Amino acid sequence: MASAYIHRTTGTAFTSNQKFTASAWIKGVIPPAADRFIFNIGEASGSANSVFFYIANTGDLILYGYNPTLQLVTDRQLRDPSAWYHIVLAVDTTQGTPADRNKVYINGEQITSFSSETNYGSSDTLGALASGKIQYIGSDTGGGSSWDGAMSHVQYVDGLQLAPTEFGEVDSTSGIWKIKTSCYATPGNNGYCLKMEDSSNLDLDSSSNAHTFTTVDEISATKDSPSDNFCVWSKNNPQAASLGSFLYGATMIITNADSTERSTYGSLANSTGKYYMEALCAAVGGVSYIGVLGTQQQLAADTNFKTQSLGYAYRSSDGEKINNNTGAAYGSTYTTGDYMGMAFDITNGTIWFSKNGVWQNSATIGEIAAGTTTNAAFSGMTIGANQFYAPTVSGHTSQRWKANFGNGVFASTAVTSPGTNASGIGIFEYDVPTGFTAWSTKGFNV
What we know:
mainly beta
C-alpha cells in the first residue's frame, strides 16, 4: 500500500465506548523494515485518544491504546511474508478479569503470553471511541507507517466483544484456519466490513451500515486472498538478510548496490504441475537472471542460482540459458523495462521463457501447450516426487524485479489489459499457454 490508506471520520456516537471487535486478514512484508500499521482509531493530530494494532520491525504484533493506557506486546512473532494471517482484537472493559478485557487472536488462537502487558482498567471508557474520531485502515494517522502488503475482509464491530470464530473457521479437511467471507450481521453504529473484493471500489463498506470511506493515494487490487494464496519472494532464506529490500508485499525486490550476486526464491514450490509467471525487470542492475531452483540447493549464501545443478536460468546480458554454471545460446538479451515470462512444466521437466510476450528461440504458445520441447530453454530436467522447484531470480547492483505470480499487479501497477488464461486462476499481462496456471494454492490444486 506504500503511503496509501483508508479512513472515515465517525459522525455518530459509538454503540459502546467500552466494547468492540476488530478483525483483519493480512499478508505483507513480515517482519517489515519499519513499523507497519493494520488498524487505528484516533485523531489526525496525534495519539492522545487512540487504539492501534501494528507489526513492529521485529515481527512482534503490538497493541497500544492511549486514554486510557493499553499495551500488549505479543511473544509470538509474525515472520512469514508468504502467509495470510488472521488478526482479531476483542475488547470489553467491563470484564472482571484484566486479561479478558482485551483479547488478541492470531489464526483463531488466543495469545496469552506477552513480553509487555498493561491491560485496560475495570469499566474504562475509551477516548478513541467518541464521535468525531477517525477510523484508519492500513495506517497510523494520515499515511504514516502504512501497511506494505495485502489486506482482506477488514471488519469492525461496535459494541460487542466477539470470538474469532465469527470471522474464520477450521477447515474440516486440512485443519487450516480459513476465512468466513460474510460480514457480521449486526455491526453497531460505527461498525464496518471492507471485503476489498471490488477492484473498482476497494473501500466499499459491505456491512449493513454502508459507511462512506475515503482512500488516500492509490491502492491496487490483487487476486491474492486468504482463499487463494499467491507466491511472493521469500524473506525466509539465508540470502534475504543481505539481499536488499522486499516491497509491495514481497512481490518486489531491490538488491543491494554492491556487486555480490544473490538469489531470491519464490515462497511456493512444487514437484509437479504446469505453472506460468511474469516479472518486470524494473532495473537490470549489473546482470539479471530469471528461472527456477531446486529447493534443496537454496542453502548457499551469497550465490547465484545459475551455478547449481538444479538451477536453470536465463541471463539478461547475452540471452544465454545457464545450468550448473554452463551457458548456451538461447534467446534475446533483456534489460530495464522488459516483461519476462516463464512457463514451467515441472511434471515433464521443461521450461520456456518469453520477453514482452514473445516466446524465445522461435517457440510458439501452441507448441508449449502441446508439450513440444524442440524450442524449449530446458528439457529433461531433474524431476521426481521429492524434487521441488521454486521460481528464482538473481542479480546485483540495485537490480529490481517486480513479480506477477498471477496476482494481477506488478508492485503497485495493475494489469489493465489481461492476456488469455484458460485456467481462470490469476491475471497476467500476456497470454498464458493452455494447461498452465498461476503459482498459487488454487493453481497447485487444479
